[in-house]
Write a structure and sequence with these properties.
The chain is of the alpha/beta class and about 575 residues long. About 25% of the residues lie in helices and about 30% in strands. The strands form 5 sheets. Strands 13, 14, 15, 16, 17, 18, 19, 20, 21 and 22 form a 10-stranded mixed beta sheet that branches. It has a 9-stranded mixed beta sheet with strand order 2-1-3-4-11-10-9-6-7.
Length: about 575
Amino acid sequence: MLSLKRWMYVAFMVVVVSSIFMIYSVNQERTKNIQIKNTHINEKPVTKEQLADMQTVDDVGIPSVRIFGDDEKALYRDIYQNVQQIFRNMHFRVTCGSESDSALNIEELVVFCDESVGKYVDLVQLGEFIADGGKVIFAAGLPEGNEESYLWSILGIREKSVRENKTHLRFEKPLFPVQAKEMVYDGYSASTWLSLRKEAEVYIRDADKGVPIMHTMEYEAGKSCLINGTFLADMRCSGLLTGAVGTLWENFIYPVMGTKTVFLDDFPTVTYVNDKLSMQLYGCSTETFVRDVVWRDFLGMSLRTDTPYTAGILTAAASDDSFPAAYGSLLASIGKSIMQYGGELVYETNYEKEDRVAVNHALLEAFSETFPAYQINGMAVLSEHFSEEMLHLSEHDRVRVVRGKLGWENAGFSDAGTTDYTMFPAATFGNQMEDGNLFALYSVLASYGMVSHVFDINQMIPRDEETASWEQDRRQLGIFEQKVLKQLSWLDKATLSETEEPLRSYLKLMYGWRTAGDTIFLDCSNMMQGQSFFFRTDDRIKSAEGLTYEEIGNGYYLLRVQQNNAVITMEEV
């Protein structure tokens, strides 16, 4: 018979062992019972109370542009189409040169999207138009040699030679709301060598040879701006166009999204293949590396900058082999963490139109078990193809907002209108900032007033000894945090689903403005209260009614319009 002391010892051991198994069981069950709901989508339709009152915008104040270009030549067709789309997104009244044979209107901004200007207008008449006060943007550069030399004096050109690819850019004057002194463009742009007169104002030069990339020139009562290159064939360079408008107009007001959205693709899903290498390089398994190293740094950046993440897991693809293995514990722990800090989980699809569609049913079941109360409302489309069939991967979820890509039809923006979803574009992609992304981020910010950037987590997971570069990735994350998120704290944080309402306001908006002395009258309709605008001016705001304003740098203000009719009073010069 056991003594009392031994009996108590045995009972203690039984309790300890039972507790260990109980804790283990609880941890296992956590992956099947996380009661977090998705509150990003408001199921109720937007009411009249949420919308600003309807009114008619005075036609006199609506900005107008006439655009000349060619739909036949591939490179210049892209510039022509992109320029039209950017101005339509800014709600300009857009007229294409081919739509009207009337003389140039001094009230219209004129933009050429072809290197050969003479085939669209008589150059002498164009010179007279500028001399009389006209504003002209040459958005596609100029041809080599002496062709169309009549324009040289108008543009302040002394000499002109051959074209070369120029991608290392040095900013000499403020152009974007935020910019670095030097930035790299990671595409191709053919820029003509130029020598300018001293009266020309250069905003951007090639950092290597000093070739002017963007400059303005006053000619009698008018002014012109030359974008020396084919940058605008790439929608990510759209900020060069809005910046060019700002150099020609003393006051320039245009609508923007006013949001920052950061996407984590293929997260928190990883593969098992790199465990051995991960142990060799980092002394831990891939799962531990993702959870305790990669996610820790991302979470820290989120908390320091108040930036929620939209994380996507590959759910539909061309084949079953496309799906990486999902760690149940990662899905539960990181997925829960993303939700707890205001983030969102969405589906990802990656297949072309002709492909068979494979659906990751195992993931759908695991997700439903892990997060039974969570309804997925968003979808990230990774390929160039999208169809509404993708919206119905699960009966439980209802996709309301789709992530497309900047540069798709209508630049990747679309309103629900006749469909059950809206489309919001990702603008920039990649883990590296210095070799192109920083320029693209600042450029898109200038034109659309948004950050919409995608990180690919799989590219941060070690694959072989040559590409296991986490320390470099961590440094690039630091650049993104310091030079993007912290400098753009005035943008509203948003997940994919949270872009729905500002997107509708941005697309449906009607607006115009007019100036009387030191006063600017801004009229709007079809907008939601708080609709964002950029206001670029060489002067300073003294006061405003009907809107709030914040100075954000380089001559830019962020306006948040609260009423249909707003009044801005400028300081007397």
